[in-house]
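tokens incoming
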């Protein structure tokens, strides 16, 4: 009853890479390469983590060099804690790389009342950077 779908994968891809003319799957249903004029402009990674009890669908847009360009919450199912969708909270991830700490109450601020959601999305972004940040070029 509390699930809110903010963006589809396709809508999030277009927001993350407005200049892209093509998205090609690199890993089925999970990773896409964004291209414009035959040039790679970045990578789009879909993922899902558990908030407190339910899944949070989110996406990470990576630059061709593997840094975070944007993080977007696609669907949030918990009854509270939706503040993690706030632009200022999500902006903390921009520019982070696989070498970044990505730690709640460290380089990423916690959101009171959304501690588990904040922590799990942060851990998810860190996992994506570790898995894809240097491997997609």
């Amino acid at each position: 009853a509390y699930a809110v779908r903010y963006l589809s994968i396709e809508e999030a891809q277009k927001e993350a890479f407005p200049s892209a003319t093509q998205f090609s799957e690199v890993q089925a249903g999970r990773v896409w390469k964004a291209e414009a004029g035959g040039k790679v402009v970045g990578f789009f990674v879909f993922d899902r983590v558990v908030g407190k009890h339910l899944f949070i669908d989110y996406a990470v847009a990576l630059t061709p060099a593997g840094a975070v360009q944007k993080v977007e919450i696609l669907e949030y199912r918990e009854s509270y804690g939706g503040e993690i969708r706030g632009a200022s909270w999500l902006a903390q991830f921009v520019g982070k790389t696989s070498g970044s700490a990505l730690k709640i109450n460290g380089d990423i601020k916690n959101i009171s009342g959304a501690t588990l959601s904040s922590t799990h999305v942060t851990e998810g972004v860190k996992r994506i950077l570790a898995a894809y940040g240097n491997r997609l070029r």
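note: DSSP finds three helices and six strands in the chain.
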